[in-house]
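Try it yourself: sequence plus magnesium ion, in.
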Amino acid sequence: MSTLLATPIDHVKGIFAEKARLLSTELGIHTLGDLIQHFPFRYIDRSKFYSVAEALGSDQLIQIKGRLRNINTIPGKKERLEAELYDETGVLHLVWFAGLKWVKPLLIAGQEYVVFGKPAEFNRKLQIVHPEIQNIKDFVAETTGALQPIYNSTEKLRARYLDSKGIEKIVKSAVLASYHSIEETLPEHLRRSLNLIPLKEAMYNVHIPTHPEVLQRAIFRLKFEELFFVQLLLCRQNQLHKKQYKGFVFGKVGNAFNDFYNHYLPFELTNAQKRVTREIRADIGSGRHMNRLLQGDVGSGKTLVALMCMLMAIDNGFQACLMAPTEILANQHYATLRELLGDMPFDIQLLTGNTKKKDRKILHEKLQSGEIHILVGTHALLEDEVVFKNLGFVVIDEQHRFGVAQRARLWKKNTNPPHILIMSATPIPRTLAMTLYGDLDISVIDELPPGRKPVKTLHYYEEKRLRLFGFLKEQIQLGRQVYIVYPLIEESETLDLANLYEGYEAIQRAFPKPNYQIGIVHGKQKPEDKSFEMNRFQKGETQILVSTTVIEVGVNVPNASVMVIENAERFGLSQLHQLRGRVGRGAEQSFCILMTSYKVSAEGKTRIETMCRTNDGFEIAEVDLKLRGPGDMGGTRQSGIEDLKIADIVKDNQLLLLARQYAEKLLENDPDFLHPENQLIARKYAELQKGRLNWGRIS
Ligand code: ADP
Ligand code: MG
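Structure, out:
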């Protein structure tokens, strides 16, 4: 970066200490360079004027031309200023609660003004609160271009006259002052190939737009550059990782795998399962260290794939382990794997926080001697006493619950890091996955086993509860089982628990013993009580299981065919989808019933509608991402996408893919940026590297 751009902003003309401090605390703007990278988030067409009548239907920021009348200061606890702007189509009310001192002198009855703001209806009158207002004469004099950039600001900044307009002013002068110091960052060959305008011009035009078309090109150039460097960093990291860490070579497929495949496999693999198994096989046979994310919707059969990989490890003289985020899940994985392996001569064991001390000791010994082939467990696997003879393959279920540091501990369980397969049942759009897990390779199971009936999803308002209970009774009559899930939100755990027990009691009244048996599980129970209840449900001894989201992931009871979700509006989309995945696992038609009150926010409605419309986890993930934005998804901080200043990985999806392609191509031709034509890349890369030394060394 040029030295000029590194200048602290309080050295910039017109920005004094107080404003500088506010800009840095409120917006993270410390230097001149930061300031010119505070990009507008939209533009207003200043050549277009709305009439008052047209303003009525608009909920946008617009500008309206008209004359003023009835300018009044209304006294009260909080004094306010009111005025009417009128034209031949109607009257618009203007209101100010703050800044009266300097607005009032500007307002002269009978004069023509340009007003700018977002109109809204209030008491059947059309009004704008705190509009920008300018005398038409000043407006003509000041407005150079037709497009006005609109900048993010904050309450505190606005109080210091740094509203969008104020920021526009200082950014503009910063751009003009630094224009000649803005150095190109993309090499000629890239710019030519994509027809990108120079950085300098892009910077100028994005803040001081001269023409809509040039503005579009400026935005394109800046977004591309931003996404390109994010992808370049991620891809390069992946590349370095592969070079740096030698992986165990699983050279052969032997008896363990073949016997299982030929004699024990309970069903034909889906094509997707075959494909990802081949992908993994190629990776672990290559001598590189595998670091792979296995994505697949709930019920897509990831466990089976994981088992086959573990068998390959055994075939090559290694041990394998599977780590699950909860006790329930670990138990279940253990049971599933045991069953799949049948009488195959492999020793598979379970280790959780609940394993007795005495058993633990034996287990440790057997692990160390290599007698145990597969170890399934929870975080307990990470403890230092857990020493393998030769750990070669690690499966992690639902990785988002494990931190980077924890994963690092797994790495240290052998001389070389074992191959890592992370199974995630939270589908995320591919572009996001690429960015969040840019340093992982990704395999996707995009197909469900055949013969599954898609779960039918219905939305019931509270008033249909009797009908719901009737339906549940019918289903239970048919021999099926039911989950009823209550939300648990950590901040108010006691309240939620009360809610859960209240629901439980109501259900007990509606489904009395001895005809009905009801179980309850929640996170505050003792583990043994929890597994007692889970077992009863699993064995069919209880017909209804009332629970919190502890059953969210992985629980597998094929006979359960109804999932009722209470207060469904309080759940996020991916959680709803996970919960729904608990049913539809058997041959019967399954149902998911989303219960809500009438009070549901617009976003809540979208979530419910999405659930009723589709069963496709990837589609749901797209909607989720649009609703919540990427900032809320786990792991975004490490990936650098929170630092994005102009691009948006949701909206600029296509551009992200393009940037990825270019980053990959460049790394292929010149991995260390040594070619003279890539000098600019080398420089920018080094600069970015400095900023993030520590993220993501370990995946
Ligand atoms: P995931 O972990 O991806 O949610 P599971 O591995 O638990 O899914 O598999 C879901 C269910 O589908 C299990 O009951 C499993 O036995 C079954 N299953 C897996 N693969 C197949 C297949 N190829 N054909 C039929 N059923 C399968
Ligand atoms: Mg699973």
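One thing you can check immediately is this: Residues 302-303, 425, 554 surround magnesium ion (ligand 2) (CB under 6 Å).
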